[in-house]
Structures are given as structure tokens and as C-alpha cells.
Amino acid sequence: MAESLMPLNILIGDRTYRIKVLPEDEEAVRGTLKIINEKILEFRTQFAGKDMQDYISMVLIWYATQPKQTDSSGVPQPELHELLNKMERQIDDALI
pTM for this one? Predict the structure, then answer.
């Protein structure tokens, strides 16, 4: 039997999205969101005058060029990358 997904409201930048995750992935998702939003804030401070899409793009480029390793949440980068891809697909689906 497939595991039950739980709904989760997430905030990226200035937008809220509702996604569904496995309960055991919730902590990793929240940790990833914390990193993403901290980086957005850092780039907003560093590069004033851009719009939110620019900051999100900068964060994606930053993330994609980071060495593959385990982050502070203890989730190996390949697993975190797959989790981010899954979140991106769910956000895309929610926008359609």
C-alpha cells in the first residue's frame, strides 16, 4: 500500500505553495526551504533592485553549483536534489 502524502504549505520568496510530501520528508523539505529563503534574503541584500524571480534564479544557480555533499539536515545531496525536483514539479502542477 502506498504511503499517504500530507499537505504542506511552503513559502519560497514571497509566494506560498501547497504541496504534498511523505511525512518522513517533511523535515528535509522544511530544512531545504530554510536554506532557500536564507539565500534569497542574502541575495536581496547583496543585489538590491531586482525582482523576486531574479533572486530565486540566483539561488537555483548557487545551489546547482555547490559541491555535492551532505547538508546540515543530514540529507545527502543527491536525495536533496531529487526532493527539490519533486517539489518543483508539484509547484509547477499547482500553477497550471
Answer: 0.65
